[in-house]
Amino acid sequence: MDGAIGIMQQFVPTVAKLDSVGVLLGRGTQHANLPDGSVEVDVTQDSAGVPGTVLGSYTYAAANLPWVNQLFAVPMGLTLTPGTTYDLVIKAVGNTRGCFGYSIATPASPLYGSNLARYTTDGTTWNTITNAMFQISTFTNTPVPFSGVAH
Question: Does residue 128 lie in a domain region?
Answer without folding.
Answer: yes
